[in-house]
Amino acid sequence: MHRVRVSKALAIGGAILLLAACRDGGTSAPTATDRIAPPETPLRDVSVDPFTYRATIGPYRLLQLPDFMIQQHTRSDIVMQRNVFKPGPGPWHTSPGPSFVYVIQGQLKIQQFSAKEGCIETPVYSAGEVFAHEADLSRRVVVVSSGDAVVLVTRFNIPIGSAPTIPVVPAPTC
Known about the structure:
The chain is mainly β. It is built from one helix and 14 strands, in the order H-E-E-E-E-E-E-E-E-E-E-E-E-E-E.
């Protein structure tokens, strides 16, 4: 029981720290492709081994007016991952919940597809930069650096026990 509480506390704390780091202090509402200024000292991590941590979280509401609100009405999972991507395009996928992504190493861009907008591409993100993903959009990571790209991802509102990413078949023709 104590172990479950500690896991939940760590998951919530990590998510809150990541969200707090993402706030840019601007007055306009950011979009999923807005850049968030990198910290003065980018995160340095000795290990680049992938990992996944997951915990179930109950309904919550974080309200810090005038510029920040996040809420969830049902129990779901929060998933924190370190992902390593090889140079070139990755597989097309979607996610059932929104995500915040911190680039630890390398350079990457995101190709997205939606029925409304068609194919779009983000700017290139480099080590120390953070960006957000909306849920339910087909996307893939394209590593443009010569070496691997390593990211930290916090995924919200994932149905309990389900996959945090789902392959898109057939893949869009972008």
